[in-house]
Backbone:
């Protein structure tokens, strides 16, 4: 896992609350709406994401054990809000490291390689609304 669990906890408590209001409108960011697989609680989690045709690629900067990803895997569908559009997506599909890197902007690739991100997922787009 490239980034520490401590940083993940800090971001979940502090940074996510700050970025959530604008992450759904800016390029390179998105917010996933998901339901807790155990608690049934609804959550909104901001992350970096990029759209490619009928897929949304996400770099897993905290690895693949994060709650939002496990919740998305447990659900048939999730909702991602990206650039102001609401997008229904299916379950995430794992990507090979180099396949994921090829789908993100070159400047982002440099940062991801620097922090040793080696996991990506693709969400298949089911439908979208403006």
Residues:
């Amino acid at each position: 896992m490239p980034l520490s669990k401590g940083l993940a906890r800090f971001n979940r408590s502090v940074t996510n609350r700050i970025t959530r209001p604008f992450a759904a409108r800016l390029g390179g960011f998105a917010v996933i709406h998901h339901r807790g697989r155990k608690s049934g609680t609804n959550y909104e989690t901001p992350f970096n994401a990029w759209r490619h045709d009928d897929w949304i690629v996400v770099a897993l900067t905290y690895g693949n054990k994060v709650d939002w990803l496990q919740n998305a895997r447990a659900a048939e569908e999730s909702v991602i809000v990206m650039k102001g559009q609401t997008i229904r997506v299916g379950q995430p599909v794992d990507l090979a490291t180099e396949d994921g890197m090829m789908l993100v902007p070159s400047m982002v690739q440099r940062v991801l390689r620097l922090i040793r991100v080696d996991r990506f997922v693709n969400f298949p787009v089911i439908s979208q609304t403006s």
